[in-house]
Amino acid sequence: MKTKNLLPQIIEPFAIVALLCLFIIPTLTVINLSPITREIEDKNVLGVNTFNSNIAVKAIGGTHNIIKNETLVKISEKQYLYKATIQKREGEKTYSKPILRLQNNGTFPIKLSLFGYTDSKTNSRISLKVGRNSYLLKDFDGTLHSQEILLEPTSDTNLYLYIENINQILFPEYFELEISL
Amino acid sequence: MSRLLKRILKISVWPAVIMIAGKLLGIIAANIVYKLDFFIDNQIEGIFTIQLYYTDTSTMVLVNSVSNLFMIIFLAVPTIYFIIKTSIYQSTLQNPRTIVKITKFNILKWITKDDTSFLLIFIWCSFLLVASFVVIAQSIQGICYPWIGGISAVLAIFSIWGTIKTYEQEIDKIYPKEKELY
To answer: I need a labelling partner for A71 at 20 to 30 A (CA). Which of A173, B12, B23, B143 fits?
Structure first.
């Protein structure tokens, strides 16, 4: 008795699946090969992240005649950007405003790096004040200085923006302050 | 197993391999040319456990765009070649002028053997379409440059048009147009 070879019929469904796989697998591989972004985690030896989870940077807000249009943008877990417009102002006067509230809720002191600049080169001196300490950002001659602030554990401090200028400024300036943890 | 299925499987292997190879080569080329830092990590979720990471968004978009461009070009070049080759081959059967032009350009090899079938073009075009959809979707998501999405869309439209034209030519072989019979 002659037996019919059933092997091709058995293989056929598997061949269809294989064909589908030939389309699906490269597509999924290509999607998976597309890179993504992620921050490199800063962990200590115990594997506990103590870097910046206890830090809070908040805008104080409020109204001021000279310092206006304040915004605070969280660029990443480690970086904030404070922006404001410094309006035209009279000469030989000092203006100040509390701009940011810095909180360290952790049990370790944390260092903050600050770098501020304006879009124009006016003879203004811009500095920050935390308590009794003053941190110069921009000198009268336009020289920029980066500063570091140490936040003590369980501290809550306000950051003041100080602006001094000898001559009268007749146009608004855009000020930016980069805060890095 | 049917002969058609066997042929489809045989033809599909190359574009599948080229699709992945194009993407991989694009990633490698971008990393070498721009001297980028990347890191590979495992993740529990998803189908694949290995993931490529970059620390900033602009680098990720750059690498993804370059690799997508490589992949699209790698798939588009053979597809366009097959479409043009078939069109020229069909044209030589109907128009003697084409034979003269082909001889002038010294590409007579193209018309001496009809080894490019509709099936081959259809499968290559399908892979190009799949890759184009992925690139367009990523462009909409903002993880690939929009102009690469645009190029993909143009290539996808062109390959669809080419496939339809090839299909028409194949149909004409079976059912010739009445005016060509007399």
So the answer is: B143
